[in-house]
Amino acid sequence: MAGGPASVPERVRHLGNYPAEMPSAPGPSPARSGSARPAALITGATGGICRALVGALADHRQVLLGRDAAVLAGLAEELPEASWVAADLSQPEDLELILGVGAGLPRRLDLLIHVAGAVRVAPLEHQRPEAWAEALAVNLAGPAELTRLCLPALRAARGRVVFINSTAGLVANPNWTSYAASKWGLRGFADALRHEVAPDGVRVATLFPSRTDTDMQRAVRKQEGGTYNTEEYLDPTAVAQAVRAIVDAGGAADWTDLTCLLYTSPSPRDRTRSRMPSSA
Question: Cα dist. 91→29, 49, 193, 255 in Å?
Answer without folding.
Answer: 25, 22, 22, 31
